[in-house]
Amino acid sequence: MLTAKLTAAVGVGLAFGALAFAASTTVALIFVAANHYHVALSAGTIVGDGAGATVATGLLAAVGVALGTLIRAQLAVVIGTFIWTVFIESILGGMFNQAGPYLPFTAATTLAGSKLGGGGFGYGGSSTATPLPFIAAAGLIVAVVTVISTIAAKTTLRADIT
Description:
Blueprint: H1 2-34, H2 43-70, H3 74-95, H4 104-111, H5 134-154, H6 156-160
Helix pairs in contact: 1-2, 2-4, 2-5, 4-5
């Protein structure tokens, strides 16, 4: 059951990510054209960053399913995730500079082409650390999903069967 939920979440996350990329890029390009601005990014960069954002959306949807399975209180998961992305990653990334690229939300933002820690949340970046390569950042998030899902399968799912 958990595998089906994870698969569905990744699929829906990818669809929403692709839709969000298409909509935001379309609006941005219309705005740029209407104001006669120059597009500073190449088409390859735009598509690459959009594909990375789409992959990150699908992977983070799987993280949500894994956390939701492990912790049954939805409000606790939402608040905990908010606290993690806004505060804890900022604190950990600031205190342990080289650990920043290995924080899950920071890794997800770098998939989308953001500078290290430049995704709006997460830690503020580093002058000495470098972002993980695309495959490594995606693999890190998959590993987080795997660990959380395994714990949930061993604890929460068994507790649900009566």
